[in-house]
Amino acid sequence: MAAPIPTEPQDFPAAFARAWASREGAQIAALFTEDADFVNVTGLWWTGRDAIAKPHDYALKSFFSDTELRPGRIETRRLGPDHAVVRCRFTLSGQRPPDGGTAGPRQTILVFVLQRGAEGWRAVTAQNTDVVQGKETHVNDGGLQAVDYRRR
Predict the structure, then answer these.
(1) Which of 48, 77, 117, 152 has its CA 20 to 30 A from that of 30?
(2) Domain DUF4440: where (predicted)?
């Protein structure tokens, strides 16, 4: 059974977290329009529900299988009666690194552009950005590194 579609834009992050907790990529994809797209934290770009479901399903059943995704600060901006932008800072804990241990918690900001339909609010696009505290940008010096120019 698919997770309920939010009836208000500000409820979308909680619905996303519930879908995450289901460990089913299809539950996440059900929150998106059929032709939606999703950009993850490393820049992977998926278009369409099936393309959004598949990598989420894999991750939720492997390295994210023991994670908790908690919504934090939420900001909603209505773009008319049928569209909204929702930003949410999430905390992710319980991720398994490649060595099999447990990684520390991390924060991301997910930006959702929502469209109201007959069933409620679905995302037409989403982008996930890791939060790197105290850093200003990334530099590629043979490997991507978060840096802060203010400390030089």
Answers:
(1) 77
(2) 15-122
For position 151, what pLDDT does the model report?
A: 67
Query: CB neighbours (10 Å) of residue 85?
Result: 15
**Would you identify the CATH topology of the domain 9-151?**
Nuclear Transport Factor 2; Chain: A, (3.10.450)
- What region, left, alpha or beta, does residue 17 occupy, with left being phi > 0 and alpha being psi -120 to 50 degrees? alpha
Its pTM surpasses 0.85? yes
Q: What percentage of the chain reaches a pLDDT higher than 70?
A: 97
- Closest to 77 measured CA to CA, from 122, 128, 114, 27: 114
Q: Where are the domains of the chain?
A: 9-151
